Automatic annotation (TrEMBL):
The Tol-Pal system is composed of five core proteins: the inner membrane proteins TolA, TolQ and TolR, the periplasmic protein TolB and the outer membrane protein Pal. They form a network linking the inner and outer membranes and the peptidoglycan layer. The lineage of its organism: Bacteria, Pseudomonadati, Pseudomonadota, Gammaproteobacteria, Chromatiales. Belongs to the TolB family. Residues 26-132 form the TolB N-terminal domain. Part of the Tol-Pal system, which plays a role in outer membrane invagination during cell division and is important for maintaining outer membrane integrity. It is found in: Periplasm. One of its GO terms (cellular component) is periplasmic space. This is Tol-Pal system protein TolB.
């Protein structure tokens, strides 16, 4: 029996490291963190099973990296820890007071049925000497990274008052040059920390404008794979897809409604680029705009009542708004000569957009209550901004030394991150919404 348990343990270890080995070459580097980051210690979790599995240490490292990467926490290096407690009974708070820690995280992993684990963690206030929260998570080897991200989300929310977004994903487009001189374009999905990449579709023709469904299970995108722009919807997990728009002329910029029943898009089937809404159940179209100018890049308000879009109907690209079922068009942006590619914050109180500053294109946030525009990025060509589902960060595409890369900035501009691929140009990132499995705290 013990021999069998050792074999199972060894198999689980190999499976876990196989998951680790699938890590994407998308690396995230904090280039600027918040002042007064909270000191926190995340102790390697213990293993309460046969053998000496490193699963606990790996889970703790993911939690530590998530919190550190947020820019709001200063995580203590493991080598500097004076002790390695695994539960409240082992904690000596004076050890952590000496190190200047505000908070402490400890945990333990144990076998839980065939192929399963039970992960327990506790968060402590060091100076009060008391537990703040504690949870048990049943999980499997396949879901270990997700479990670690969920733990980081819970800790982040408890200590900042804002839901975490570590257990979410990002989609992005990568272009790489092949050995034969041709270009390969891929739409990829990865965890928010850049790990576990999944290729959704690959083409020798352009792919663009990825857009997440509200349930996080599907992506809409534009493909030129048949030498013609068409809009597809594809299931992330199964790969099943359907073509939903392939009219004459432009078929572009798909954007899901908050309830997932409709899709705003740009069509030029009647001669000029206009904003339409496609009812996905009835396959019927409703035209929202009718103007000789170019209307494009629609995005929905979180309550589903409005669609914003980019238009040059005033002479220069600016953001406009129209009721989701048609009506009067009103202008939203007035500061600057160029504002485009706007989308709403999850709370609906602000927009992120691309604005021109001199000859540079930067990422900005527009406060809708007072029309104050705050520029957040400092690149020459920054584009495609997308809010994290908790509204704390904005991911966007930029150019660094002529190469397309991704970057992220907090909505107050205090935290900056760089997300780099080892090869290929990366563009058009979009952050996933919360899903049913990570909405526990929403």
């Amino acid at each position: 029996m013990m021999t069998m348990m050792k074999r199972i343990t060894s198999l689980l270890l190999l499976l876990f490291w196989a998951v680790q080995a699938s890590a994407a070459p998308l690396t995230i580097e904090i280039t600027e963190g918040a002042e007064g980051a909270l000191p926190i210690a995340v102790v390697p979790f213990g293993w309460a099973g046969p053998g000496a599995l490193a699963i606990g240490s790996e889970i703790a490292e993911i939690v530590r990296s998530d919190l550190q990467r947020s820019g709001r926490f200063a995580a203590l290096p493991v080598k500097d820890m004076l002790a390695r407690p695994q539960s409240d009974a082992d904690v000596e708070f004076r050890d952590w007071k000496v190190l200047g820690m505000d908070n402490l995280v400890v945990g333990q992993v144990r076998p839980n049925g065939q192929g399963g684990f039970l992960v327990r963690f506790q968060l402590f206030d060091v100076f009060k000497g008391e537990q703040l929260i504690g949870y048990n998570f049943p999980t499997t080897h396949r879901d270990l990274r997700s479990t670690a991200h969920k733990i980081a989300d819970i800790i982040y929310e408890k200590l900042t008052g804002q839901p975490g977004a570590f257990d979410t994903r990002i989609a992005y487009v990568v272009s790489t040059n092949k050995a034969d001189g041709t270009q390969e374009v891929s739409l990829k999905v990865a965890d928010a920390d850049g790990f576990e990449p999944q290729t959704i579709v690959t083409s020798s023709e352009p792919l663009m404008s990825p857009s997440w469904s509200p349930d996080g299970r599907r992506l809409a995108y534009v493909s030129f794979e048949q030498k013609k722009a068409s809009i597809y919807i594809q299931e992330v997990f199964t790969g099943r897809r359907q073509k939903v728009a392939s009219f004459k002329g432009i078929n572009g910029a798909p954007a899901w409604s908050p309830d997932g029943r409709n899709m705003a898009l740009t069509l030029s089937k009647d001669g000029n680029p206009e904003i339409y809404v496609l009812n996905l159940n009835k396959n019927s179209l409703n035209r929202l705009t009718n103007h000789y100018a170019i209307d494009t890049e629609p995005a929905w308000s979180p309550d589903g009542r409005y669609v914003i879009f980019t238009s040059d109907r005033g002479g220069k690209p600016q953001i406009y708004r129209v009721p989701a079922f048609g009506g009067k068009v009103t202008r939203v942006t007035f500061e600057g000569s160029y504002n485009a590619r706007a989308s709403y914050a999850p709370d609906g109180e602000s927009l992120t957009l691309v604005t021109r500053q001199g000859g540079d294109f930067r990422i900005a946030v527009l406060n809708l209550s007072n029309n104050a525009l705050q520029v957040l990025s400092d690149g020459r060509l920054d584009e495609s901004p997308s809010f994290a589902p908790n509204g704390s960060m904005i991911i966007y595409a930029t150019k660094i030394n002529g190469k397309g890369e991704l970057a992220a900035v907090s909505v107050d501009g205090s935290i900056r991150q760089r997300l780099a691929l080892q090869e290929g140009d990366v563009r058009e990132p979009v952050w996933s919404p919360y899903t049913k499995t990570n909405r526990r705290n929403q």
